[in-house]
Amino acid sequence: MNVTSQSDQAVEILQGVIERGELKPGTMVSERTLMELVGLGRTPVREAIQRLALNRMLRIHPNRGIEVPPISVEDQLSGLEVRRATELLAVTLACERATSADIKDIQALADALDGDYTLERYTETIRLTHTLIIRSAGNPFLQDLMSPLQARSRRFWLMHLQDSVEEVNIGKHLHQRILRAICARDAKEAGTASLDLNDYLVKFSMSVISQRVSKRDSQSW
Question: What is the DSSP letter of 63?
Fold first, then answer.
């Protein structure tokens, strides 16, 4: 395996660990710790750290270590503003450019979303959904822009999840609508479904603020 593919593997492993909260926000880790975590050598792990730092999934402190930075509601809402526009473009392009092989994979994933999902399986399926849409859009610049935004958004969602069954069911339905619209090459419906997903994520983010206010008020009594 070459260094580039090892670096990609290290990014995938570390990003998953951060998204799932296995490395908590505010945690300081060393390069050696991350090497042991992913089971790869210094060069690919160092490259992965640099890439994740650019995506704001890690923060490098010279002579101190590597921090898993917190993600605030404000950060999430700012990211969702950008996601709203880029994902609308992505699903529109996917409707126009998806190959027959893309459509086959998207249809299979849409059908699979009819089933029951654990939170872990759902998270992996949504990551695959994002990958398929970006691939079908056929624009590498969209991939560079969207992938880190989606990763940070998944991380925030997992951090603040209260009722996983209800939220997974909502998310399944919204993503399934997008996938089925792309299969039908219905750009209007795909765009509407994409905006509905963004609206849901904004509402979810705002609910985090409400929960904090309620908790603060209850503690003041």
Answer: T
What is the C-alpha to C-alpha distance for residues 169 and 185, in angstroms, rounded to an integer?
Answer: 24
User: What is the pTM for the complete model shown?
Assistant: 0.85
| Beta-bridge mates of residue 60 | 66
Asked if 168 and 122 count as a contact pair (C-beta separation under 8 A), the reply is yes
Cβ atoms of 179 and 106 closer than 8 Å: yes
Query: How far does the chain reach from its first CA to its final CA, in angstroms?
Result: 60
Q: Using one digit for the tens of pLDDT, what is the confidence trace for 175-214?
A: 999 999 999 999 999 999 999 999 999 999 999 987 665 5
Write the DSSP string, 177-216.
HHHHHHHTT-HHHHHHHHHHHHHHHHHHHHHHHHHHHHHH
> What is the rounded distance in angstroms from the CA atom of residue 58 to the CA atom of residue 37?
15
Domains defined for the chain, CATH in brackets: 6-68 (1.10.10.10), 73-209 (1.20.120.530)
Tokens linked to 204: 């979810």
